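User: Teach me something about this protein's shape.
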Amino acid sequence: MGPEHLFPAAADDCIAATRWVAGSPAELGEKVTGVAVAGDSAGGNLSAVVAQALAGQLPVPFKAQWLIYPAVDMVENWGSLDEFADDYVLTKAVMRWFEVTYAPTATQRHDVRASPLRATSLAGQPPAVVMTCGLDPLRDQGRAYAAKLAEAGVSVTFRELAGVVHGAFNLRAALPSIAADLKRGIADLRTAMEASAA
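Assistant: First, the predicted structure itself:
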């Protein structure tokens, strides 16, 4: 993570790790029959980056991607970034700090390995489950990524968790209803993986 390890270190590490897993290394003790990626927030960013980099490039099927309130664009000033700029856990100021700490230059932030929404096309991506939160500065860019996937012909399950903030899955003790949303997301991911095998 930045600032110790700047862009594209995190993307490179995640791509390399996924390639390693897909190669069925002896350390796993099992043969890998497919790969799926999942992550929330910055992890959603990295999951999208890995899917873009490796779809169709692995020795096993890339079955699915689960993007949970993902940060997929470090360039545009999305409406939700202003609408929920303060008082909703993740703030606009903190988000901007994260962006420049990881990718200090504008050129880096425009790169699809930092801003996967900037990809020219998302055709050929694995099936996706995209979840956003209704009170999240990142909401609009997550919505836009789901729409761009669908427009490219990718199978997408999109869910927006109304009335909750960024990082909701980490707040299950305070928001018990989130546990049901998490279970629903896991079921969606399983469905996406099964559909990709059909």
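Now, about its shape. Helices lie at 9-22, 42-54, 79-83, 92-102, 106-110, 139-151, 177-197. The chain has one domain: 9-197. If you'd like, I can walk through any region in more detail.
User: That's plenty for now, thanks!
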